[in-house]
Amino acid sequence: MRKLLALALFLAAIVLPAAAQRRTINLDSTVTTKHQVTIKGQKVPYTATTGTQPVWGEDGKAVAGLFYTYYERSDVKDRAARPLVISFNGGPGSASVWMHIAYTGPRLLQIDDEGYPIQPYGIRENPESILDIADIVFVNPVNTGYSRMADDVDKDKMKEKFFGVNADVKYLAEWLNTFVTRKGRWASPKYLIGESYGTTRVSGLALELQNSQWMYLNGVILVSPTELGIEREGPVEAALRLPYYAATAWYHQKLPQDLQQKDLTDVLPEVEAFTVNELIPAIVKGGFLEGSQKEAIAAKMARYSGLSEESIQQHNLDVPLNFFWKELLRRESFTVGRLDSRYKGIDRQDAGVRPDFNAELTAWLHAFTPAINLYLRDELKYKTDIKYNMFGPVHPWNNENDNTGENLRQAMAQNPYLHVMVQSGYYDGACDYFNAKYSMWHLDPSGRLKDRLSWKGYRSGHMMYLRKEDLVMGNEDIREFIRASLPKKGQPAMY
């Protein structure tokens, strides 16, 4: 009998810890800590609430838990007047880490003034954070950060609920309703900020929150926006790349001397005018464009892009992005980055039509991954063995029926309070600045809403805030946007 009991205890000692160590998510949890940050010379006390909040299924059962970090200034008397900024990153499949610890949040990762990794890894105060004027919540959609589906759901079946343009918007709107209710923020002016695919997300959310949750916004901030479902195929798509090529070539000093001597913002209007007034009409003519005219257009494109006339002619005036990233610095044996063309990469060989890897993304993962893991665990005291997904498995992603740009227009039309600001980096080749302008121009064809639409440009890439000067400017632009979009006391939402 004693031998059997000893054997049972031995097996329990092996089996029970193994079961206890299974990496599972707590769908509903919070950890709250108190902190202080100095912003613009002013001490700002705040609480940080880190945890998970359930996504509810149709039967009222929790089917996932979304990980979030919520920063709330703690010396505010009138919470009803205090703005709430709801922040998403993109991918789809990206965690909220990027803007969280490099842009608007109260803590900043260790990087140099241009955004490159430095060691030792770590976190410092963010003196530019917008926490002085607004509370912020950083949200991680399913499979990003620590967010996961519940253990007892059919994960393959649940993909349809989470992984698609419209599914994503629908469940996140419901989740935000719960969050705002739990935190008592219904009276607060509300803002959405999204980066990259996050701009698709927040554009769709603006209307979904109004129509399905009866939650109305004061502002939407689009950082490095996607196309938002706005069509631009064919000649327009081909031509719109040129201003980005010009910005990148200017940065790497590949333009003719007369252009190189000018400031970037003096060069780009000339390139933009050529793109709209000459290049698009020329590409529209296709193979029937007269030979002499084609040569003249190719010569101008070469002047503005740093590429050879021959290579432009070989592409029939339609130069692919991958080729540009490979070709511009080919003679120096470097490639340029996709998301930020200030970054250089080294390929196995100089030959080829595309870079081997994205030089900028590798550098960013190098800097961000240690920082967010250390910060959440050591400073915010959130303990878990679940892996923090910088990029999580969310594919295949259903991109059908992407009407998010039109959804944002409808939300603005229905809500006179709602303003939109676009922020773009000149050296972003994935969501380039001129395409962002094009999206803004075509968001509302009537032109009736243009006084509530604005665009800001910065001398960096996709994550323009990684450059210190743009971190300062970008956050200040957000402050001004929030102040300008808050209605005066008693001002009604009416036309």
UniProtKB/TrEMBL annotation:
Keyword annotations: Carboxypeptidase, Glycoprotein, Hydrolase, Protease, Signal
Gene Ontology molecular functions: serine-type carboxypeptidase activity
GO biological process, one term: proteolysis
Recorded coiled-coil stretches: none
InterPro entries: AB_hydrolase_fold, Peptidase_S10
Signal peptide residues on this chain, from the entry's feature table: 1-20
Any Pfam family: Peptidase_S10
Origin superkingdom: Bacteria
Keyword ATP-binding: no
UniProt keyword annotation of Signal present: yes
Protein name: Carboxypeptidase
